[in-house]
DNA sequence: TGGATCCAGCTACACATC
DNA sequence: GATGTGTAGCTGGAGCCC
């Protein structure tokens, strides 16, 4: 893929394809999640964009301490100790309704997935024909990082 | 025995006091908590202690001590190993004593056979006593305040309920109703355990149809299943639903609910349906076709790879295995004729079972005698081999072209004969079809009328009584039920015939699909195929899908496009001519329409003369050809036009026939099929001929304005396609009308289908820069600006539609925009700049404009803002090097617009959301120091604004927001400092010594420049021609949305390539930032800032 | 068993409501 | 003032694969 190593963006003449094959595959992949609309949108590749708290944490260290902590934390019950006060243990809530969840009428199902693809985005509605771009601008291609990274 | 001595079997024998029992028990549990491995031994020890207590007649003390021991683990949180082990240990112990008791009973029973029966049936056994005691104890805590206590209680009960066969009815009733209540516990972990517990009751028999139920509450197997089903569907916790999924009894009655979870929002649950539940359901035939189809459709298309993989495995391993690896049986079960997923399933099968490809053998005998399954396998196998260039398999299995053509001909001939020998059935079908047509016509007319009434109501503010039309709708409903009766009435005659015909046509379709991909190496075969296709297309009156594929084959085997057009024209002419003998009028009718062409072209004004139209119709009335012929010709024309790739040049034959047919059809507004086909063909025709397109857009525009959703969708698709092919110039100076139409359609939530089309269409036009290509057009400056404003408003409307509360009701629209908006933004820096330029307006309007705020379920600022920021993040741009990404200004500009929204009268929630998201903006020291400086100053201004308004509640920030804002300001200042430093170093290295003097000159020049043009990014440098003053902007700024005038704080993209005026650009940018922020107080925001 | 991933719960805080 | 609700960021557990 020689294109990857070209430094300058390529400026294309009119009537070129909007997205090339690689780019379509790239977008189809990237848009795989977050298809359900704004209320279900989640940040995915956001960390990379966040340049403020970018100091890399010494991961190994923290991991070890948590690991150790986990081991040490193991609780052992003393069955010879004083008995638990049952009145406290079984104490009822002041308002019993706080134990009840609100009724949910939803079905917890995904909506029908129309599986929108980039090929549909660059194809006409009424026939199988790819739309061309009208402007004079560099044709979109993947950046190196995108190709080697998440692409 | 003292506390330090652990009990042994021997020491237990010596126990004589209850405190010794207690001590022994504590020891056992002290050990049991350490691990599962010792449990077997400890169970024996504890059992001995229990038996000893029974022996001493102190079993109630044993029970008491046991509950005290258990109390100690009830407050241990979920995940605490110790508590889990103790719970398991209790379960093991209870199981063990229950088993012992059963064994003892059996032994006793066999003894009793010899002796007389005892009387102790009535008495409660020590084991039952213990279990009952334990249950009552635990039930005391089942409604405890502490969720952990409830969790542990229900967990223990879930273990115990497996061994409760002997408990009394009252205890059971108390247990059952308490557990039932926990199905609605606030805490998911409690509900989950309650599901597990209640699931065990499914195996009990609560059949009280013969006898009276011993329970006072409703306990039946059906009610238990019902409760689990309620949880599997409605519980909002994925883990609870999972527990219900895994524990619900698998039966024909529950299958639909199990299958339904293949669409669960949780991907683990979906995967489980395929990996585990499907196996538990047994052979694929245990599930009916409809549900199998759903499973495949959902699973093979799932967004999660893991789910897809599990679904693939289910198909290719479990189901395939369940039909003993018989591929034909598998295909038979797929019901290929009625299935939408069979093809995908087959291709996935081939891909994941490549080992089976070589076992497929297709010889002469095979393809000479095709069943639908054989034909389907042959076709999908062929397509798979072709797509994966498995040419050896193709050569080994598939016939020569000439044989394929002959086979195809054979089946086509079979079809013709079959139809000919069933004329009665055909008549029945035709008459049914006629009724159907009448129905469609009425529906379309009614839809159009309703739409017109709505339009008139809106435009003239008249209230029209639509009662009449409602009545008509009711009448139509009656017709629907009548039409639906057809299949019922024709059960014996037509239905079997239709099925057989469909089988034949399905086989033909498979052959055509092969022919469409076939390698016509030998010319003899090609010519044979050509002959078959041409003949059959002309003579056979093939149904839509077959005709469409046949035409594709024709195109494939034609010499070139011109040849294809000539042949198809001839075919359509022949179809028409075949009826010439029967109806002389038809030919002349078409000629007449040709003559009408001129009239038509004159008619592209907005107001069409209804009388003239009617007159024209009348004139044509006597020459009417049979509708079905016209429809057939038009359908063929549509398919032909769909296949033409090149602009129309001198295909006059095509022009004369199609423009005649098309105009004829369009005028028949009361004939649905004809009218809609006419519009489709008009649109398609316009795509290959610019002059047709010019008229077509006007015709389509009028049709849309006065019609219902069906017509509008067809019209909208056509218009957008025409714009995609010919550009905006095709609509001349009328851009405003069209923009308004687009806007109205986009925001018309009564026509959800139309919304989808226009949203997708606008995205296409923006993505391809067909919209916003103003710099290349030759329109006047004013025209340019109007176009620009219309497009800007449309773009903002698209973004607003994505976030609109009502869009959650139009799933398809949401999905389209979820895909298209980010693709648009990420595909070019200019696109990203455009998104950032509307960010401020979007936020302001979403959270302050009544249009958006008065709905329920509206989105929060904390979810909207990160999305806007994500779309504008330069890291998401394609096409750029890391260096270029670091120099992108989209986030910087977005920041300016966000600050603007921050300083406006937005609510506190919005302000906080903006501030907390500022840290997500990607601003680097590779940006020019001048713009960073501008941003830093803007931020100071914002800070000041907050100080000045400190008395207003909205401007009183909480601690965290203060900190976040200060951190961000500091970050920008640091970045600015670094940038200055970097530029200094670069200047030193650079030998371009004249930079300063150039800058000086430019600064002077800047002062004289007009004050309102804005530009974006280094690549885009504004040219003088594009300058406009603020005043001109306002004068021509008509608002397509009927709202107040829109604010003109906008960056204007220019498409000129990079030149060496970067410095000027940067100065501009800096000035921009100042201006935008200064303007806040004085500018009259369109988005009406109601006080 | 360990690693990667996703999800849900936890905590701290702000704010609304009773 | 107590209580409930909503949010952000973190963390640990669950289910899976190898």
Automatic annotation (TrEMBL), chain B:
<protein>
    <submittedName>
        <fullName>Chromosome condensation complex Condensin, subunit G</fullName>
    </submittedName>
</protein>
<feature type="compositionally biased region" description="Acidic residues">
    <location>
        <begin position="1018"/>
        <end position="1030"/>
    </location>
</feature>
<feature type="region of interest" description="Disordered">
    <location>
        <begin position="588"/>
        <end position="623"/>
    </location>
</feature>
<dbReference type="InterPro" id="IPR016024">
    <property type="entry name" value="ARM-type_fold"/>
</dbReference>
<dbReference type="InterPro" id="IPR011989">
    <property type="entry name" value="ARM-like"/>
</dbReference>
<keyword id="KW-0131">Cell cycle</keyword>
<feature type="compositionally biased region" description="Acidic residues">
    <location>
        <begin position="1038"/>
        <end position="1058"/>
    </location>
</feature>
<feature type="region of interest" description="Disordered">
    <location>
        <begin position="104"/>
        <end position="125"/>
    </location>
</feature>
<keyword id="KW-0226">DNA condensation</keyword>
<dbReference type="InterPro" id="IPR025977">
    <property type="entry name" value="Cnd3_C"/>
</dbReference>
<keyword id="KW-0132">Cell division</keyword>
<feature type="compositionally biased region" description="Acidic residues">
    <location>
        <begin position="592"/>
        <end position="613"/>
    </location>
</feature>
<dbReference type="GO" id="GO:0000793">
    <property type="term" value="C:condensed chromosome"/>
</dbReference>
<dbReference type="GO" id="GO:0000796">
    <property type="term" value="C:condensin complex"/>
</dbReference>
<dbReference type="GO" id="GO:0007076">
    <property type="term" value="P:mitotic chromosome condensation"/>
</dbReference>
<dbReference type="Pfam" id="PF12719">
    <property type="entry name" value="Cnd3"/>
</dbReference>
<feature type="compositionally biased region" description="Acidic residues">
    <location>
        <begin position="112"/>
        <end position="124"/>
    </location>
</feature>
<keyword id="KW-0158">Chromosome</keyword>
<keyword id="KW-0498">Mitosis</keyword>
<dbReference type="InterPro" id="IPR027165">
    <property type="entry name" value="CND3"/>
</dbReference>
<feature type="region of interest" description="Disordered">
    <location>
        <begin position="1005"/>
        <end position="1059"/>
    </location>
</feature>
<feature type="domain" description="Nuclear condensin complex subunit 3 C-terminal">
    <location>
        <begin position="632"/>
        <end position="923"/>
    </location>
</feature>
<dbReference type="GO" id="GO:0051301">
    <property type="term" value="P:cell division"/>
</dbReference>
<feature type="coiled-coil region">
    <location>
        <begin position="429"/>
        <end position="456"/>
    </location>
</feature>
<keyword id="KW-0175">Coiled coil</keyword>
<comment type="similarity">
    <text>Belongs to the CND3 (condensin subunit 3) family.</text>
</comment>
């Amino acid at each position: 893929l020689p294109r990857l190593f070209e430094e300058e963006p390529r400026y294309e003449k009119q009537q070129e394809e909007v997205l090339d094959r690689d780019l379509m595959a790239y977008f189809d992949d990237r848009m795989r999640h977050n298809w359900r609309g704004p209320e279900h949108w989640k940040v995915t590749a956001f960390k990379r964009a966040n340049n403020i708290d970018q100091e890399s944490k010494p991961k190994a260290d923290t991991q070890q301490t948590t690991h150790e902590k986990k081991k040490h934390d193991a609780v052992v019950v003393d069955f010879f100790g004083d008995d638990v006060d049952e009145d406290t243990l079984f104490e009822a809530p002041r308002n019993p309704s706080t134990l009840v969840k609100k009724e949910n009428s939803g079905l917890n199902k995904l909506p029908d997935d129309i599986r929108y693809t980039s090929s549909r985005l660059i194809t006409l509605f009424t026939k199988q024909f790819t739309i061309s771009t009208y402007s004079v601008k560099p044709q979109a291609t993947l950046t190196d990082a995108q190709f080697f990274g998440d692409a | 025995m003292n506390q330090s001595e652990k009990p042994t079997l021997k020491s237990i024998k010596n126990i004589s006091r209850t405190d010794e029992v207690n001590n022994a028990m504590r020891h056992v549990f002290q050990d049991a908590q350490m691990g599962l491995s010792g449990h077997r031994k400890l169970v024996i020890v504890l059992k001995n202690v229990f038996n000893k207590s029974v022996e001493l007649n102190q079993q109630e003390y044993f029970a008491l001590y046991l509950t005290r021991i258990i109390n100690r683990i009830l407050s241990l949180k979920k995940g605490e190993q110790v508590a889990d082990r103790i719970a398991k240990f209790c379960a093991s112990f209870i199981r063990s004593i229950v088993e012992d008791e059963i064994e003892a009973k059996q032994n006793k029973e066999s003894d009793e056979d010899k002796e007389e029966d005892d009387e102790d049936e009535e008495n409660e056994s020590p084991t039952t006593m213990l279990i009952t005691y334990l249950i009552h104890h635990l039930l005391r805590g089942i409604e405890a305040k502490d969720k952990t206590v409830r969790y542990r209680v229900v967990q223990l009960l879930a273990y115990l309920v497996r061994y409760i066969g002997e408990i009394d009815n009252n205890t059971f009733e108390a247990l059952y109703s308490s557990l039932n209540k926990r199905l609605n516990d606030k805490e998911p972990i409690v509900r989950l355990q309650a599901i597990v517990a209640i699931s065990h009751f499914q195996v009990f028999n609560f059949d009280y149809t013969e006898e009276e139920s011993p329970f006072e509450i409703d306990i039946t197997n059906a009610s238990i299943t019902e409760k689990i089903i309620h949880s599997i569907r409605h519980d909002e916790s994925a883990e609870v639903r999972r527990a219900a999924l895994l524990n619900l009894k698998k039966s024909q009655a529950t299958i639909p609910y199990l299958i339904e979870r293949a669409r669960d929002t949780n991907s683990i649950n979906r995967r489980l349906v395929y990996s585990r539940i499907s196996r538990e359901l047994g052979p694929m035939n245990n599930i009916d076709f409809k549900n199998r189809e759903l499973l495949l459709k959902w699973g093979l298309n799932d967004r999660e790879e893991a789910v897809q993989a599990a679904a693939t495995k289910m198909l290719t391993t479990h189901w395939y295995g369940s039909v003993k690896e018989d591929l034909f049986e598998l295909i038979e079960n797929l019901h290929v004729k009625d299935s939408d997923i069979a093809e995908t399933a087959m291709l996935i099968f081939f891909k994941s079972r490549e080992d089976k490809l070589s076992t497929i053998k297709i010889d002469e005998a095979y393809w000479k005698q095709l069943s639908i399954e054989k034909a389907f396998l042959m076709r999908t196998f062929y397509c798979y081999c072709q797509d994966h260039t498995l040419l050896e398999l193709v050569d080994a299995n598939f016939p020569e072209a000439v044989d394929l053509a002959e086979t195809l001909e054979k089946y086509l001939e079979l079809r013709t004969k079959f139809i000919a020998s069933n004329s009665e059935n055909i008549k029945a079908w035709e008459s049914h079809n006629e009724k159907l047509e009448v129905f469609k016509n009425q529906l379309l007319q009614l839809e159009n009328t309703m739409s017109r009434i709505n339009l008139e109501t809106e435009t003239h503010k008249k209230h029209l009584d639509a009662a009449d039309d409602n009545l008509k709708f009711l009448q139509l409903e009656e017709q629907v039920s009548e039409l639906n009766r057809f299949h019922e009435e024709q059960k014996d005659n037509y239905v079997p015939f239709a099925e057989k015909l469909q089988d034949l046509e399905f086989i033909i379709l498979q052959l055509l699909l092969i022919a469409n991909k076939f390698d016509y190496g030998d010319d003899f075969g090609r010519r044979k195929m050509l002959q078959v296709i041409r003949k059959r297309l002309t003579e056979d009156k093939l149904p839509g899908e077959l005709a469409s594929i046949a035409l594709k084959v024709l195109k494939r085997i034609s010499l070139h496009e011109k040849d294809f057009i000539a042949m198809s024209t001839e075919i359509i002419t022949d179809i028409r001519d075949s009826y010439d003998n029967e109806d002389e009028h038809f030919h002349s009718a078409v000629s007449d329409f040709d003559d009408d062409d001129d009239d038509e072209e004159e008619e592209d004004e907005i107001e069409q003369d209804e009388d003239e139209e009617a007159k024209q119709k009348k004139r044509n009335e006597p020459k009417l050809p049979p509708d079905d012929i016209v429809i057939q010709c038009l359908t063929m024309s549509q398919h032909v036009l769909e296949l033409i790739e090149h602009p129309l040049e001198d295909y006059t034959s095509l022009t004369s026939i199609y423009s005649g047919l098309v105009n004829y059809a369009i005028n028949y507004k009361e004939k649905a099929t004809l009218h809609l086909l006419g519009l489709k063909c008009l649109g398609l025709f316009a795509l290959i001929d610019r002059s047709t397109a010019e008229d077509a857009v006007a015709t389509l525009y009028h049709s849309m304005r006065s019609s219902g959703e069906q017509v509008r969708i067809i019209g909208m698709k056509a218009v957008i396609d025409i714009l995609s092919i010919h550009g905006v110039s095709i609509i001349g100076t009328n851009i405003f009308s069209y923009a308004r139409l687009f806007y109205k359609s986009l925001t018309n939530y009564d026509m959800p289908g139309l919304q989808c089309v226009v949203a997708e269409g606008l995205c296409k036009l923006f993505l391809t820069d067909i919209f916003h290509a103003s710099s290349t057009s030759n329109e006047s400056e004013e025209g340019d600006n109007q176009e620009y404003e219309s497009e800007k408003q449309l773009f903002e409307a698209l973004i607003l539609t994505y976030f609109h509360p009502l869009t959650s009701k139009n799933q398809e629209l949401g999905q389209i925009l979820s895909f298209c908006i980010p693709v648009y933004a990420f595909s070019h820096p200019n696109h990203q700049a455009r998104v950032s330029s509307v960010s401020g307006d979007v936020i302001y309007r979403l959270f302050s404009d009544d249009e958006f705020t008065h709905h329920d379920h509206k989105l929060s600022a904390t979810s909207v803002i990160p999305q806007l920021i994500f779309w504008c993040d330069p890291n998401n741009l394609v096409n750029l090097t890391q260096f270029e990404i670091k120099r992108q200004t989209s986030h910087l500009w977005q920041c300016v617009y966000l600050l603007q929204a921050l300083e406006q009268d937005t609510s506190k929630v919005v302000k906080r959301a903006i501030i907390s998201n500022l840290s997500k903006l990607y601003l680097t020291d590779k940006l020019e120091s001048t713009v960073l400086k501008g941003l830093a100053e803007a931020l100071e201004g914002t800070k000041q604004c907050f100080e000045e308004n400190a008395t207003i509640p909205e401007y009183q920030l909480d601690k965290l927001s203060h900190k976040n804002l200060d951190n961000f300001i500091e970050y920008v200042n640091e970045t600015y400092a670094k940038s200055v430093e970097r530029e200094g170093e670069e200047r030193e290295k650079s030998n371009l010594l004249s930079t300063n003097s150039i800058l000086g000159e430019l600064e002077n020049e800047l002062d004289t420049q007009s004050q309102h043009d804005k530009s974006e990014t280094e690549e885009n440098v504004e040219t003088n021609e594009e300058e406009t003053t603020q005043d001109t902007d306002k004068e021509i700024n008509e608002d397509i949305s009927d709202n107040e005038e829109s604010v003109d704080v906008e960056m204007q993209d220019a498409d000129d390539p990079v030149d060496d005026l970067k410095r000027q650009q940067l100065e501009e940018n800096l000035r921009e930032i100042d201006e935008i922020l200064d303007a806040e107080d004085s500018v009259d925001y369109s988005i009406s800032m109601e006080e």
